[in-house]
Write a structure and sequence with these properties.
- The protein has helices at 2-18, 45-52, 69-77, 90-101, 126-134, 174-200; strands spanning 21-23, 34-38, 57-62, 80-83, 105-108, 137-144, 154-157.
- It is of the alpha/beta class.
- It has a single domain, classed as 3-Layer(aba) Sandwich (Glycerol-3-phosphate (1)-acyltransferase), CATH 3.40.1130.10.
- The chain has a seven-stranded mixed beta sheet, sandwiched between helices.
- The model has no long low-confidence stretch (mean pLDDT 89).
């Protein structure tokens, strides 16, 4: 209940400040495990994705944000969980798999950090590996306009990707995971180009 209350307030805030709009939200399957993969520019990106997606999202958030007990409780109430950046965080790894095992939606920013440039950074392989391990479909998304107050926020979702197409001989090889990871980010980049091209012609 708390998640939906905050989500409604976030939607009101983003509608007033950014005129939020979303396209393709129906491409997120209504049930079953899903990994939502998107670019990351601003702290408002998780809010924009959570408002645009009809299903509740589970986010990784840097562990430093959970040091304050009250704020940590707030984040956990919104289905966020801590991850230690720059290290192998086994607890976050297990939590991610648990979310997918119960059919939840795990939202990941594969770039690993905010990236205000027009191009996307080389992706970390976590999203691809989680999909290969669990069979969860991957839904690419692109968020535009969160960086500046007054700019319209647009979120566009792409077609779901079946990880089985990148399993090769059905072994979890590093090469298969890297190829899948690059393919996912190529879809995200394609959505961004389409979104920006449409904006230029309106």
């Amino acid at each position: 209940m708390f998640y939906y209350v905050v989500r409604a307030l976030a939607k009101l805030y983003l509608m007033i400040t950014h005129g939020l709009s979303a396209e393709g939200s129906e491409k997120v399957p209504e049930s079953g495990p899903v990994i939502l993969v998107a670019n990351h520019v601003h702290a408002n990106d998780p809010l924009a994705l959570a408002v645009a997606c009809k299903r509740p999202l589970h986010f990784m958030a840097k562990a430093e944000l959970f040091r304050n007990p009250l704020f940590g409780w707030f984040l956990r109430s919104l289905h966020a969980f801590p991850v230690v950046r720059g290290a192998v965080d086994r607890a976050a790894y297990r939590k991610s798999l648990e979310i997918l095992a119960i059919g939840g939606v795990l939202a990941i920013f594969p770039e690993g950090t905010r990236n205000p440039s027009d191009g996307l950074l080389k992706p970390h392989p976590g999203a691809a590996r989680f999909a290969q391990l669990t069979g969860a479909v991957v839904v690419p998304a692109f968020v535009e306009g969160t960086a500046r107050v007054g700019q319209r926020i647009k979120v566009v979702f792409g077609d779901a990707i079946d990880p089985r197409a990148f399993m090769g001989d059905h072994k979890l090889t590093r090469e298969a995971t890297e190829a899948f990871s690059e393919a996912i980010m190529a879809r995200v980049e394609s959505l961004g180009k389409r979104l920006r091209s449409a904006s230029q012609h309106t």
